What we know:
This protein is of the alpha+beta class and about 250 residues long. It has 3 helices and 9 strands, in the order αββαββββαβββ. A hairpin with a 2-residue loop joins strand 1 (about 25-30) and strand 2. The site of 2-acetamido-2-deoxy-beta-D-glucopyranose has 5 residues, from strand 1.
Amino acid sequence: MFKLALALSLLSALVSVRGHGYVQEVTSGSTKYTGYLPYQDPYYNPPPQRIIRKIPGNGPVTDLASIDVQCNGWSEGGTPGSAPAPIYATVAAGSSLALNWTAWPDSHIGPMITYMARAPSDITKWNPGTSAVWFKVHELGKTSDGKWAATDLLTASKSIYTFTIPSKLKAGQYLIRHEIIALHAAYTYPGAQVYPSCIQVQVTGSGTSLPTSFVSFPGAYTASTPGIVYDAYTNTGAYPIPGPAVWS
Ligand SMILES: *[C@@H]1O[C@H](CO)[C@@H](O)[C@H](O)[C@H]1NC(C)=O
Ligand SMILES: [Cu+2]
């Protein structure tokens, strides 16, 4: 067992050196939830229970028409997209969630964006498929002085990205879809690299609001969406963050 653990930690160290990444930990108040660890979890029996849906590894999705762009793909038992995870976090509307990313390569500049989707039924069984159910709750692109969400701001905050669950959001179960879109090869399509993570939560509180317009994944991003094909090295002006406006 010790040898296995050692081999696994060496393997994950090697993999993190090679680049890319994923959300490895979610913190709500004083509660920490370990993320789905693609280089460790599959080797345990029984597998650890996580609030983040399975991902195949630390690599990106570049085919924006694929269901994989939703939760970083992991088709299982014929289910398109990521299989539901067995548990969820409980978070209060109006509170913030801190998402801890694995070491992010400096070259992979781009925006960090977060969507939510309300589960019509048990979040541990629900899969949104291609339905338009997603609304944007937070986004960071490039600041006016040229700092990118990834990697400048993320590095400055010790690899922690923080956003707030909208305070007026109706209580219930939601899937949070958080992503970095890396733009280092986005001068053409396909090129932009999407690194999504899907986190299952139960939102508590007395809010009563829901948005009225929604997007789908796949669907929200195409080759002609502003900010998807983008030369991040020659464009020195403002960056158009892909997708709809943040719900307010
Ligand atoms: C992020 O998670 C890693 C792995 O659990 C941990 O070692 C690191 O301290 C965390 N970062 C912060 C700022 O909490
Ligand atoms: Cu990469």
